């Protein structure tokens, strides 16, 4: 065990995978000698050489197009998109190509060897274009797996599992926690299974659900609620697609109440999918409407970031609304 | 005059200066078209010597002959409502076959959709073509895509994808992987002059150059993208001239001249594999057919224009060459054509009776394994179909069987 | 009044707008002399000249980038994306630029003059790449209006309103109905307001909701249900974003039951947003779970298109499930 | 030898043929860099005559002087934690200011983010700059974007957008609209050599050429895109050489030489507006500063390289020229710099005390009118803030006021 922050944990997972796979490639804007603008790939070029760890030209659609081809060829391709806000030029390559590669070819070809890493999320004074959480755009696309770590330990284990998966994965890294989340992380390899939600805290009165950095907001809100005598069950979804309906609905059947929280705007967000599914799965058990605590339906603002965010206070209020319904 | 920069130039530009304020002309570079064979199938005087042996020539000729007949018959089948859609290669057979013939089998092919001749050259069988067009259960693609979306892992032919241009950066990535593994192989990437307008073109060519990926970018400039003539597609000198913008070598070749295409691609392949460098090849050949079976060119171009180009037939030109070489017998050629027609017809009759893919295939291959939610959706669908079997005739009867 | 199919109705709305706005431009792949692959822009180049009606190079990101600039400059920009399946290369220009143009500039600049037309949807043997219904990707993006006509009359009136709107609109045309939907359509100008759902059929037992071509499936299912004595209220949402929560929730409060149907895959589709919102708005009135009848969570297949589609039989079964809950 | 095509060439290519199988070399076209002023601020012997009058020269000089001081002070303010982020123009002041000066006021500017000097030249005030950087309620952008994302309708300066390259096709569309309206104006579009790798670059340049839009594409090749040197960005001869691929005229200019930039852009503007045609201009000037306040270049380049280029200062070169012309007085120049420093400091002190934008602005401008669902979200938010005023200090007190 070592103390690592999330960047170090990610770096360690990458280094191990590159040692295991002699052709694995890490590439993207500034990931080479410099080690990435957040330094997640720091030291990798020195270790594995310029052929396997390299800067690309500044073209996200090219990075993903190149990655699709490289993965189809059989190489473990680990591209980085510098900010999730800049993943959209690659949207066609991801949604029409990556996600459909295996299906359209009848499994003649696949890009299961592809793991796209990208920092996402707000709370860092990034304004419109350094704060977005675009998971819902991808969750509506069959064929992709979407993975979100909430801390350093989860990051290393989930990334290792993503790198082993034979399906393409988008690995969303909560940049707000890159350095803030420090914890005990094994130096060797371990994996955390994809597709499984984790019950982070057991509780009886209400279920709280989130993924990535937003889990922290739930924890803070649950602490406030516990002072009111409310016992919260906290679930970290971890894999947003395909998601673990079972774990969530069992919890809601037990508690009868659900608050889902996401950073992204409310409308059409993944919280809506969860609410839609759970109202169906748990209809007779629900004692109050499923609450969604989300970003506003506006672009992500700078000066009003605090007001915009789905913070712990808003989650706490939703808990109370739900309990007092 | 002092050079602009006195350290190693981080701007990656040539270092010569000028005091004259002059535009670089928009046509500063014009690229000639390489050819070998004249219309009569004779080598031009002073033409490059041909390196194509008899065996290769025959295989090329047979491939083109097959594709011509196959295309005709399939279009007819579409007109009869037997297949839903079709696209012909008419006029571009030499460009596609000649380039495919210049490759090695281990080289990867990323095609656009009009390159069935390359796949045929590699050995895709008539039956395999047919099953795909009928989206039946023997289609490698499990009936999921529209007709002409072929693919074959065994023949190193990446499954066709309709969104244009996406295969261009993919080819660069694939080639990069080949280089890393030390395969001594390359990837060829076909695309139309229309698709070359996509952002993915820029991405793919630049990345191949920067990352030294042995990729052959084969632009089929056939004059049209559906109804849009090349003159409304770009103002530069075709596609080849763009190579210089990427620091990439280029060639332009007469796409109606199979010998020229073959030599050009052979040379480009050699260069690419030996130097780990991409090459851009532009072939000039007119799209003689309609864009697809859904299209009617009379809405946008003159019959007269078509007729002029029809006279310039790549297969006929090569046939004359083959005859002169004594590599082809006219009577046998005619007989072979008749046989292909008959074979196509009977393969068609077989394929259209082959069952649709099993219902299970509606949820497979989305992921490596079928996840829980898709298992559930499949189960619901099955129950639903069993309730209304007459509404889903292609699958209903077979579910009952397997139940 | 004249008999028109949907293509003629759209053509007529375009021609009227181009007469009213002396600089309005229609452009896209093959829309010029040829009049578009579906012939929606047929005759417009002859009438308004090559400067205002023109073929573009084959580059969707360019079409939308150019359109954003042209609209910002003050010209009514009416680009066509040949198939909605090919809108993804333009995703960045739409989601990061079009949608955020006014907000990010504090209203110094806007692209309210932009109407993107695109044919969408399945049922035409189009397979993966000529069948998609990508509205959910855009509905999660604040700043866009999404409009869906269900027939020729609606198409002309809604398109005219979209062309007058000072917000950017994506106008989704159900290509399955282009020629199939024929009806009485006024030759002159009229508009149908954006943002308002329409109750197509009054009913008391259950609410059925859809948009675009899918409304037809509801009508067929409702007819079947009426033979079982079930009275269906049918709502055409018409504007998917921002959507008319009021009309839908009032109907559900009345009927107590809701079936939402969409062509797109279930997970993360817009039906999920509706279910999430309505379970909240109408919690105490719901007598059964909100049913979503959607495409499967797979790419759109060719051979199994019939099986894949959210057809009237599947809607009918959902109605019965809901009623018998 | 017969021409390849005997009707009007639908493939839009040059028609000359060749029998020689030769690659077009990857460096077949190399573009020289136009310059006028030497390091000492003297015109080279045989240099083009300058058309810049005294008034313009002074306005340019004052703009550059202002931006240099402003940038320094703002970076310092960032280091003190007073603004969250900043980007300097250091080393590229001449390229940006000289090009802006060559335009007319009615010409539109689409910038990337490092072109504050163009906006300053147009008349954006120190206070306006400052309010944007402090995202306060006087910011035209209503505090929504990060520092340096300026915009001004009145000055025809489109609001900066962070996603790279998106402004390139937008500029083509804007210019097309100007042409349609008969404005006799053009649009200039600035972008970095890194952003020129984006698909939108390819889209924008090709569309401008095909649709004859009077657009000046101004590529600032400053050698780096954050840490990525131009040598890992492309293999061609800079950006200018790509113009020939689009059938577009091009110029390359020494971006440290304000006279050369001014003349080049003036000539390009004249050509673009008169002929309704785009021009690509590439300016060569080194990015002397860090990429942004978040960046530290010691991680990817040698101090020595920086020092070499620091000696090649665009403002110093022009200062010498101005002195020689007798258009500048050294003492006054020094005094002016001191005054700017003081002005910046006091403007900063004012701006940082101006209130944040009102809470209402969180839901305005998403649409022209605030739709129902946003009215509702705003109402909920207001109630929430009133419950926890201490958690939202920037807005809480003011809501109570206006309640
Ligand atoms: C991204 C995308 N946009 C639009 C289309 C529709 N489309 C199919 S083929 C075609 C024209 C392609 O022309 P070109 O690349 O020249 O190839 P050719 O048909 O001439 O062989 C178009 C516009 C598509 N398939 N993909
Ligand atoms: C689409 C997109 N991808 C990535 C980024 C992150 N990014 C911001 S600036 C920059 C480098 C730009 O370099 P260049 O275009 O050369 O401009 P310069 O900073 O040198 O002026 C990068 C990668 C972005 N803003 N947008
Ligand atoms: Mg073509
Ligand atoms: Mg740069």
TrEMBL record, chains A, C:
What keywords is this UniProt entry annotated with?
Oxidoreductase, Thiamine pyrophosphate
Q: Which GO terms describe its molecular function?
A: branched-chain 2-oxo acid dehydrogenase activity
Q: Where are the transmembrane segments?
A: none
Q: Which cofactor does it need?
A: thiamine diphosphate
CDD domains (alphabetical): TPP_PYR_E1-PDHc-beta_like
EC number, as in UniProt: 1.2.4.4
Single GO BP term: branched-chain amino acid catabolic process
Question: Transketolase-like pyrimidine-binding domain spans which residues?
Answer: 4-180
InterPro entries the UniProt entry points to: THDP-binding, Transketo_C/PFOR_II, Transketolase-like_Pyr-bd, Transketolase_C
The EC category is oxidoreductase
Stored SMART domains: Transket_pyr
What exactly does this protein do? Answer: The branched-chain alpha-keto dehydrogenase complex catalyzes the overall conversion of alpha-keto acids to acyl-CoA and CO(2). It contains multiple copies of three enzymatic components: branched-chain alpha-keto acid decarboxylase (E1), lipoamide acyltransferase (E2) and lipoamide dehydrogenase (E3).
Q: What is this protein called?
A: 2-oxoisovalerate dehydrogenase subunit beta
UniProtKB/TrEMBL annotation, chains B, D:
Q: State the source organism's domain of life.
A: Bacteria
Q: What is its EC number?
A: 1.2.4.4
Give the keywords, sorted.
Oxidoreductase, Thiamine pyrophosphate
- UniProt key word Zinc: no
Instruction: Look up keyword Transferase and say if it applies.
Output: no
Q: Which residues form the Dehydrogenase E1 component domain?
A: 62-358
EC primary class? oxidoreductase
Q: GO molecular function terms here?
A: branched-chain 2-oxo acid dehydrogenase activity
| Family of this protein | Belongs to the BCKDHA family.
Q: What is this protein called?
A: 2-oxoisovalerate dehydrogenase subunit alpha
Q: Which organism is it from?
A: Psychrosphaera haliotis
Show the taxonomic lineage.
Bacteria, Pseudomonadati, Pseudomonadota, Gammaproteobacteria, Alteromonadales
């Amino acid at each position: 065990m070592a103390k690592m922050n999330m960047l170090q944990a990610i770096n360690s997972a990458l280094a191990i995978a590159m040692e295991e796979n002699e052709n694995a490639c890490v590439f993207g804007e500034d990931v080479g000698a410099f080690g990435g603008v957040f330094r997640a790939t720091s030291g990798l070029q020195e270790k594995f050489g310029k052929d396997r760890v390299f800067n690309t030209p500044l073209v996200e659609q090219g990075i993903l197009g190149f990655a699709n081809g490289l993965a189809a060829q059989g190489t473990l391709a680990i591209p980085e998109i510098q900010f999730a806000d800049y993943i959209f030029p690659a949207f066609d390559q991801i949604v029409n190509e990556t996600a459909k590669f295996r299906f359209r070819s009848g499994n003649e070809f696949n890009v299961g060897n592809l793991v796209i890493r990208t920092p996402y999320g707000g709370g860092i004074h990034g304004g419109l274009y350094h704060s977005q959480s675009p998971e819902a755009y991808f969750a509506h696309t069959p064929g992709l797996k979407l993975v979100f770590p909430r801390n350093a330990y989860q990051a290393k284990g989930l990334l290792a599992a993503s790198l082993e998966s034979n399906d393409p994965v988008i690995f969303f890294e909560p940049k707000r926690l890159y350095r803030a989340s420090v914890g005990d992380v094994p130096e060797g390899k371990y994996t955390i299974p994809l597709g499984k939600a984790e019950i982070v805290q057991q509780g009886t009165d209400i279920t709280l659900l989130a993924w990535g950095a937003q889990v922290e907001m739930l924890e803070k809100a649950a602490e406030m609620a516990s002072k009111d005598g409310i016992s919260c069950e906290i679930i970290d979804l971890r894999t947003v697609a395909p998601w673990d309906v079972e774990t969530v609905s069992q919890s809601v059947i037990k508690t009868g109440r659900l608050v889902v929280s996401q950073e992204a705007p409310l409308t059409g967000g993944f919280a809506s999918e969860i609410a839609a599914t759970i109202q169906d799965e748990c209809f007779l058990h629900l004692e109050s409407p499923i609450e969604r605590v989300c970003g506003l339906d506006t672009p992500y603002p700078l000066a009003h970031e605090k007001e915009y965010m789905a913070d712990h206070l808003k989650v706490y209020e939703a808990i109370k609304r739900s309990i007092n319904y | 005059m002092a050079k602009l920069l006195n350290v190693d130039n981080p701007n990656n530009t040539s270092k010569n200066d000028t005091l004259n304020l002059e535009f670089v002309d928009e046509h500063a570079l014009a690229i000639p078209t390489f050819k070998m064979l004249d219309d009569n199938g004779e080598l031009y005087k002073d033409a490059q010597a041909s390196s194509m042996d008899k065996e290769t020539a025959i295989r090329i000729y047979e491939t083109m002959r097959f594709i011509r007949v196959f295309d005709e018959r399939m279009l007819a089948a579409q007109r009869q409502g037997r297949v839903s859609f079709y696209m012909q290669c008419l006029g571009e057979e030499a460009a596609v076959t000649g380039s495919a013939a210049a490759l090695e089998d281990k080289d990867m092919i990323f095609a656009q959709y009009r390159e069935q001749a390359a796949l045929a050259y590699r050995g895709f069988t008539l039956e395999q073509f047919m099953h795909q067009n009928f989206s039946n259960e023997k289609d490698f693609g499990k009936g999921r895509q529209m007709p002409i979306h072929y693919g074959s892992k065994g023949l190193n032919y990446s499954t066709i994808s309709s969104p244009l241009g996406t295969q261009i950066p993919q080819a660069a990535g694939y080639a990069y992987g080949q280089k890393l593994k030390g395969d001594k192989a390359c990837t060829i990437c076909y695309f139309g002059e229309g698709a070359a307008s996509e952002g993915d073109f820029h991405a793919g060519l630049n990345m191949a150059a920067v990352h030294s990926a042995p990729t052959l970018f084969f632009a089929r400039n056939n004059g049209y993208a559906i109804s849009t003539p090349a003159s409304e597609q770009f103002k530069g000198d075709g596609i080849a001239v763009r190579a210089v913008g990427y620091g990439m070598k280029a060639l332009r070749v007469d796409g109606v001249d199979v010998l020229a295409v073959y030599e050009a691609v052979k040379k480009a392949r050699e260069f690419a594999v030996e130097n780990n460098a991409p090459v851009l090849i532009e072939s000039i050949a007119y799209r003689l057919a309609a864009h697809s079976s859904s299209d009617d060119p009379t809405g946008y171009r003159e019959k007269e224009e078509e007729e002029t180009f029809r006279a310039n037939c790549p297969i006929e030109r090569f046939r004359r060459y083959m005859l002169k070489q004594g590599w082809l017998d006219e009577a046998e050629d005619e007989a072979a054509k008749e046989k292909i027609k008959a074979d196509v017809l009977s393969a068609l009759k077989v394929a259209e009776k082959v069952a649709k893919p099993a219902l299970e295939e509606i949820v497979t291959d989305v992921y490596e394994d079928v996840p829980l939610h898709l298992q559930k959706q499949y189960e619901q669908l099955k129950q639903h179909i069993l309730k209304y079997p007459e509404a889903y005739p292609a699958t209903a009867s077979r579910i009952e069987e397997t139940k």
